[in-house]
Amino acid sequence: MPNSHSRFPSSQAPRLLGRLCKHFSHKIEARWSEHEGLLRFSIGECVLQADDQALHLACTAPSAAELDELQEVIRRHLQGFAQVDDLVLQWH
Hints:
Order of helices and strands: EHEEEEH
Number of domains: 1
CATH class: Alpha Beta
Largest sheet: 5 strands, antiparallel
CATH superfamily: Alpha-D-phosphohexomutase, C-terminal domain
Distance between the termini: 14 Å
């Protein structure tokens, strides 16, 4: 299965992890603690890890197209919660 990972530098990473997971928990399976989270979408899943310097994102999906869509969903929501204009995440 295609997968990718990215890193969003932020001293507020645990807060962002919590906000993302809580937001999505109304629509999909979401589990989280202060430093780890899991979001399970119909198009794939995203594992989140937060430390004092960054939010780490690891996405897995059944196809490359679904992975692209999942990355964009995560990017858009993170952009809103982090209050960053035109957030660009480098996926590897």
